[in-house]
Design brief:
CATH superfamily of the largest domain: Alpha-helical ferredoxin
CATH architecture of the largest domain: Orthogonal Bundle
Oligomer: single chain
Low-confidence stretches: none
Radius of gyration: 21 Å
Helix content: 25-40%
Largest sheet: 5 strands, mixed
Strand content: 5-15%
CATH class of the largest domain: Mainly Alpha
Shape: elongated
CATH topology of the largest domain: Fumarate Reductase Iron-sulfur Protein, Chain B, domain 2
Strand order of the largest sheet: 2-1-5-3-4
Distance between the termini: 67 Å
C-alpha cells in the first residue's frame, strides 16, 4: 500500500451522529478494517468498544458500517474501501448502540421469534430420525438460506427496517422461508400467519439491499418473494374453504 498513514474516523456512541473521533493509523499490507479498529483500541484509545470473535468470516459479530456500507470488517481489506486515505467506521444502523461500535442485537433476534423462525418439531428423541430427500425442490429451496450466520448486515442495509420499526426484516423472513420448505418442520400454518401480519413479508418494498450486501451471497429478497406468494395462496385457499 502506497499510503503510510490512514485517516480513520470512528463514530463514538451511543449518540454516534454527535460524536466522531479521528485517528492516524499506520497502513500495512493486507490490512483489514477490523485490523484498523483493533489498532486504535490497542494503541490510541483503550476505551473504544467493538465486537469480534472468529476474525475469519464465520461468526459475523464484527459487522459495522464502513463508509456508510454494512460489512464484515474482518473480511474487508481497508485498501478496497478507502476514500483517498480516509475511512469512516460506525456501528450497524437500525439497531440500538450500546457503546461506540457495539450494537444491541436483541431487536434483531426478537424479530426471528416474531417470524416463527424457530424449528417446530413433532418428533421426540425416542422416534427414529426421519429421512430427508435432498433432491426435492423444497429441500433445495430450504438449503439456499441455511448459511445465514445472523450477522445483521442485511438488517442494517434495509431501508424498510429504517422506516418501519415493526418490519420483521430480511434475515427473519429468510429464516421463515427456510423452515416453510423444511420437510421436518411442522409449523407451516404458524409461519404463514406470522409473516403475513403487520410488519411481515408484504411490508418489503423489494429494493434488494439485503441481497446486494449479504456477505454470504444469500438472496433474502427472493425468499421474501416466496413468502409473499405462499401467504397469498394460503389466503385464497382459506377464502374458498
Amino acid at each position: 500500500m502506497a499510503l503510510d498513514v490512514l485517516k480513520v474516523t470512528i463514530e463514538r456512541g451511543p449518540d454516534a451522529a454527535a460524536a466522531q473521533q479521528s485517528f492516524d493509523v499506520p497502513a500495512y499490507e493486507n490490512q483489514t478494517v477490523l485490523d484498523v479498529v483493533s489498532w486504535v483500541q490497542q494503541n490510541a484509545d483503550p476505551t473504544l468498544s467493538y465486537r469480534f470473535a472468529c476474525r475469519v468470516g464465520m461468526c459475523g459479530s464484527c459487522a459495522m458500517m464502513v463508509n456508510g456500507v454494512p460489512r464484515w470488517t474482518c473480511r474487508t481489506h481497508i485498501s478496497k474501501v478507502l476514500d483517498g486515505n480516509a475511512v469512516t467506521i460506525g456501528p450497524l444502523r437500525n439497531l440500538p448502540v450500546i457503546k461506540d461500535l457495539a450494537v444491541d442485537m436483541d431487536p434483531f433476534f426478537d424479530k426471528w421469534v416474531e417470524a416463527e423462525g424457530v424449528h417446530h418439531g413433532a418428533l421426540t428423541r425416542d422416534d427414529p430420525i426421519a429421512p430427508v430427500d435432498e433432491t426435492t425442490v423444497e429441500r433445495t429451496t430450504a438449503n439456499t438460506g441455511i448459511e445465514c450466520i445472523n450477522c445483521s448486515v442485511c438488517y442494517a442495509a434495509c431501508d424498510t427496517v429504517t422506516a418501519n420499526k415493526d418490519y420483521l426484516g430480511p434475515a427473519a423472513l429468510q429464516r421463515a422461508w427456510t423452515l416453510l420448505n423444511d420437510a421436518k418442520d411442522e409449523g407451516r400454518a404458524s409461519i404463514l400467519d406470522a409473516v403475513s401480519g403487520k410488519g411481515g413479508c408484504h411490508t418489503c418494498h423489494s429494493m434488494g439491499s439485503c441481497t446486494a450486501y449479504c456477505p454470504n451471497d444469500l438472496d433474502p429478497m427472493s425468499a421474501i418473494a416466496g413468502l409473499k406468494r405462499e401467504t397469498a395462496r394460503s389466503f385464497f385457499r382459506r377464502g374458498r374453504s
